[in-house]
Specification:
Layout (H helix, E strand, L loop, with lengths): L1 H16 L4 E2 L7 H13 L3 E2 L2 E4 L1 E2 L5 E4 L4 E5 L15 E3 L2 E8 L2 E6 L6 E6 L8 H12 L8
Parallel strand pairs: 1-4
Antiparallel strand pairs: 2-3, 3-5, 5-6, 6-10, 7-8, 8-9, 9-10
Helix pairs in contact: 2-3
Length: 151
């Protein structure tokens, strides 16, 4: 009987170590955008910057997160303010163009020149934050068609 009790306690302790779902806002994407985003988000890697993929709250096929504090990934967002002038601010990571906006605790990166707007919010804990984009670029290439290349 004590072995069963210790095993149960071990599972409770392990469960307490992993973070729960990350709170990530779900965008109000048009149905066709949401349908196009689902395979992209699903194809994202299991790790970004060695941080494990985790569930989001509320549950949505348009969002995912990695690590703690969470790197938040959201597909189907609106273009951010300032992106209209972004051609001069476009930078590429593995052939994917990005717009970067510095925020209080890190950076928010949004794809530029692609069919879908994918946003990756990276806390400063992961500096240099742009390195996270390397890990998501393969999925972006496969599931987010280029319309205008970064120049």
């Amino acid at each position: 009987m004590p072995k069963v009790l210790f095993a149960a306690l071990g599972l409770i302790v392990l469960a307490g170590c992993s973070p729960g779902p990350a709170p990530v806002a779900v965008p109000s994407a048009a149905p066709e955008v949401a349908a196009a985003c689902e395979p992209l988000v699903k194809a994202l890697p299991q790790k970004v910057l060695d941080a494990e993929r985790r569930k989001t709250e509320p549950v949505s096929p348009l969002t995912t997160a990695y690590g703690d504090p969470p790197i938040e990934v959201t597909c189907g967002v609106n273009p951010p303010a300032g992106m209209a002038e972004a051609q001069s601010q476009c930078f590429e990571v593995n052939g994917v163009g990005w717009f970067a906006k510095e925020v209080e605790n890190g950076f928010i990166f949004t794809t530029i020149g692609r069919e879908l707007y994918l946003e990756v919010a990276v806390p400063s804990k992961y500096a240099p934050e742009a390195n996270a984009l390397t890990d998501v670029s393969d999925a972006v290439h496969r599931y987010n068609k280029v319309i205008t290349p970064c120049t």
